[in-house]
Write a structure and sequence with these properties.
single chain; mainly alpha; 2 domains; two-stranded antiparallel sheet; DNA-binding transcription factor activity; Fun_TF
């Protein structure tokens, strides 16, 4: 610019009200971490918080989420409604599938929805239903597990969100399994930790777990021939184990061992980062699902509540590992959420009273500290345990 030229004026977004800033701060310091749990670059914490200052749709979704987490349900409802009023006219526009601000707002609204499920665990998936179509349109033919953009980060939040209803209802996740997952980068030993590589390896396990759920919960609809179904079971088992064998050493626990005297019944397992805890949990969830739903000559599919006795203990070893990881990383709330909905698969097999008490305590704390509804699942578990 020459000295005489008129300086360009950058429009300044309207300043936040104090209440809006309070909820945005709570989002960035507490609950954005839930959305970033497999993203080492922490895009929701760092990028979405900034974007919200100039996007009312995103800001209102965030306020609703933060208020719901704090138990301020009136504010949560008010701002959810304000967000939806702004969102609805945009749903018919052609560019919405490529608007990362909108995609982020919708996955945040989806968390609000999951935080307000009924006492029976009923979940209407209003936002998830619309979100599915949008995210399918946003990804093209391939999905990058390193999630280099916000729209891809939103896609991975959506993938994890789909696990809730998949487990609770034992139905396939509402995902497009025609997408081709790009492979994670090869592990280079003794190099500095790379956030894109860390994210890619965590999300790769997330996707493998999703494909395992798709197989297990589709029943004979997916593979009518038992030989084809058995072949697919072996392929998935190999994919799960191959990830475990080839993952970066950063994903290994800092410590793993039997609990100290008086420390509770579950193993002690400590990790470095949220995405390591999440990948560990999805690995063990995938392993237990493959155990429970292994095809046999007698059943094309085996109901989760009709597992054969010889596999019970193997399933419980994976369940205890998941419990131990949650106990060791109480700040990784999405790991506790995974634990919560996975209990539908293995909860009836937990017959030890000390383990039952410790599990219930973790679930009660998840609702008491983080507003995630668990009372209904505790009631279901206690009813199952009373039959033993």
């Amino acid at each position: 610019d020459s000295p005489m030229s008129v300086p360009r004026i950058t429009p300044v977004p309207p300043a936040l009200q104090r209440q809006e800033a309070f909820y945005l701060h709570h989002f960035s310091t507490h609950v954005a971490r839930w959305l970033d749990c497999t993203d080492a670059s922490r895009q929701f914490t760092l990028n979405v918080t900034v974007l919200a200052k100039s996007s009312p749709i995103l800001l209102y979704a965030i306020i609703s989420y933060a208020a719901r987490h704090l138990g301020d349900n009136n504010t949560a409802d008010e701002f959810q409604d304000k967000c939806i009023v702004l969102l609805i006219p945009l749903l018919s526009t052609e560019t919405i599938a490529h608007d990362e601000t909108i995609l982020c707002a919708i996955v945040i609204l989806r968390v609000c929805e999951q935080l307000s499920v009924t006492v029976t665990g009923g979940d209407q998936e209003r936002h998830l239903a619309g979100l599915s179509a949008l995210l399918k349109a946003s990804q093209g033919q391939q999905v990058d597990p390193s999630a280099p953009t916000l729209s891809q980060a939103a896609f991975w939040v959506y993938v994890r969100q789909s696990f809730y209803n998949a487990c609770i209802n034992q139905q396939p996740p509402n995902l497009n399994f025609d997408l081709v997952l790009m492979p994670p980068p090869p592990v280079v030993h003794e190099q500095a930790v790379d956030v894109k590589s860390e994210t890619a390896w965590a999300n790769t396990m997330t996707w493998i777990c999703a494909t395992v759920m798709h197989f297990c919960f589709s029943g004979s609809f997916l593979y009518s021939e038992s030989s084809t179904r058995m072949q697919r079971w072996y392929e998935l088992s190999e994919a799960v184990e191959n990830w475990n064998k080839t993952k970066p050493s950063t994903f290994d626990p800092i410590w793993s061992g039997a609990p100290e005297l008086g420390a509770g019944p579950f193993p002690e397992i400590w990790f470095t980062a949220d995405w390591h805890v999440m990948a560990f949990g999805f690995y063990h969830l995938a392993r237990m699902l493959l155990k429970v739903y292994r095809p046999s000559p007698r059943f094309a599919i085996r109901n989760a509540r009709r597992t054969l006795a010889e596999s019970d203990e193997s399933v419980m070893e994976h369940a205890r590992a998941l419990c131990g990881a949650c106990k060791g990383s109480p700040g990784t709330v999405p790991s506790l959420i995974t634990l919560c909905h996975s209990t539908i698969i293995w909860g009836p097999l937990m017959t030890d009273e000390r383990e039952q008490t410790s599990l219930v305590s973790m679930l009660e704390d998840l609702e008491g500290s983080h507003a995630w509804p668990t009372a209904w699942i505790i009631n279901v578990l206690r009813e199952e345990w009373s039959k033993c």
